[in-house]
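Help needed: design a sequence for this.
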């Protein structure tokens, strides 16, 4: 047996393979693009290392692509071959993969928490519990998990900076914005490549309506996310949002072309960055040219996936209202069909918030704003379950608000704006301020129409 970088015993026997395994684990924490290479080196040298096979399978499932399920299943079979030789802690990772393949990622979280009960310094389990909870839309659970193990992390623990980055994000998602910013800054100081912590601070500025401060935070810190896998596109997305809020639409479009959509992938995370940015631009009346065409072409091939409602709703953004009526109808019908099955947690989320949200997006694309407002409003109460962050889901909030404005539901929209402001610690971005002005103008117009003629 050997000991890993976090002080945990492993069933590996080769020091060089252990070094590759350490690099794999740190790579997961840092969202590093080279992580797959390190994992490949481990599996090449020790294909019977069940822990690494489990990580391969879980990483594949996090991609949210149904066609990759056979790869995750192969990883589980390989992990099972080494199960007996694995340590009890390592076996729990294999069990977590099996639970997720069985449609119950919440059980995978519970198994990671079981690891953390006996091995709180296991930073990989910490990150996986955090990551799966993020996918399932459980910010309170993210925060509780991190705070439970935090006392075990000494100042010199190799994973402490990344732990703080996760804590910063969990604090932000639970509304503790001041603490989140302080913690995120500390995370980046301890782990300069902690893009997750850096982006958590960007979230704070997004949620508190401080776009200019957010740009100051990100500018000059590009090295903190340059090493990342496609997560780097997401950080650029944050920067583009800040430019948009400041009315700098040209800069937002420039970042879309040069960074956010630098690589034309159909990874759902990249698609979500792109579609939500374009939708925000359009809601502000900014022409986006033919940029929807490339996205809608890719998303037309994803209508039958059904891995994650978060992904499906962003695919719908590219399809609805962009000359893809057949594919839109097909995807909405498939979401409803999955919702009726409810055999997996993913299908449960297709039912709520999926069905109402999908109907709303379809109606919005058709210009039926009254129906869109009703459907999106019904989905709003459970939209947290779609997963992702408040900032990511805000595109659906904005569409709900704008659908309400376009259909004349001023009072109901004002309630949403008030609630949105409350969740942002009283802060408002320029989007919200502009909508409040539209409500005031709309009411003035109604008052003028109701005045008797002289």
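Sure. Designed sequence:
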């Amino acid at each position: 047996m050997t000991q890993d970088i976090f002080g945990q015993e492993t069933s590996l026997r080769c020091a060089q393979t252990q070094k590759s395994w350490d690099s794999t684990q740190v790579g997961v924490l840092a969202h590093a693009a080279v992580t797959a290479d390190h994992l490949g080196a481990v599996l090449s040298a020790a294909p019977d290392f069940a822990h690494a096979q489990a990580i391969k399978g879980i990483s594949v499932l996090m991609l949210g692509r149904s066609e990759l399920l056979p790869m995750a299943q192969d990883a589980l079979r390989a992990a099972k071959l080494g199960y007996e030789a694995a340590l009890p802690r390592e076996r729990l990772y294999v069990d977590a993969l099996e639970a997720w393949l069985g449609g119950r990622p919440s059980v995978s979280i519970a198994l990671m928490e079981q690891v953390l009960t006996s091995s709180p310094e296991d930073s990989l389990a910490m990150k996986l519990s955090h990551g799966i909870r993020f996918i399932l839309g459980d910010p309170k659970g993210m925060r509780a998990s991190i705070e439970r193990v935090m006392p075990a992390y000494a100042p010199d623990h190799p994973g402490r900076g990344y732990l703080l980055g996760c804590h910063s994000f969990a604090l932000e998602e639970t509304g503790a914005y001041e603490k989140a910013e302080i913690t995120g800054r500390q995370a980046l100081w301890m782990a300069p490549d902690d893009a997750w912590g850096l982006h958590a601070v960007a979230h704070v500025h997004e949620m508190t309506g401080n776009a200019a401060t957010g740009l100051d935070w990100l500018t000059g810190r590009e090295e903190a996310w340059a090493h990342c896998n496609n997560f780097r596109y997401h950080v650029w997305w944050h920067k583009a949002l800040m430019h948009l809020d400041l009315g700098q639409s040209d800069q937002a479009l420039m970042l879309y072309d040069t960074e956010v959509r630098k690589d034309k992938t159909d990874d759902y995370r990249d698609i979500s960055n792109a579609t939500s940015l374009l939708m925000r631009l359009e809601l502000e009346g900014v022409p986006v040219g033919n940029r929807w065409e490339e996205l809608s072409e890719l998303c037309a091939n994803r209508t039958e996936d059904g891995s994650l409602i978060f992904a499906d709703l962003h695919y719908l953004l590219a399809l609805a209202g962009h000359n893809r009526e057949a594919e839109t109808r097909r995807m909405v019908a498939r979401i409803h069909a999955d919702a009726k099955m409810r055999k997996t947690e993913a299908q449960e989320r297709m039912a709520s918030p999926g069905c109402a949200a999908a109907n709303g997006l379809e109606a919005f694309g058709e210009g039926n704003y009254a129906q869109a407002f009703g459907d999106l409003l019904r989905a709003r109460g459970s939209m947290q379950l779609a997963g992702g962050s408040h900032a990511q889901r805000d595109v659906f909030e904005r569409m709900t608000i704008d659908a309400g404005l376009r259909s004349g539901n001023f009072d109901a929209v004002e309630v949403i704006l008030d609630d949105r402001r409350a969740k942002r610690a009283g802060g408002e971005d320029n989007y919200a301020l502009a909508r409040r002005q539209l409500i005031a103008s709309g009411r003035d117009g109604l008052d003028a129409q109701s005045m008797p003629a002289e």
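The chain has a mean pLDDT of 96.
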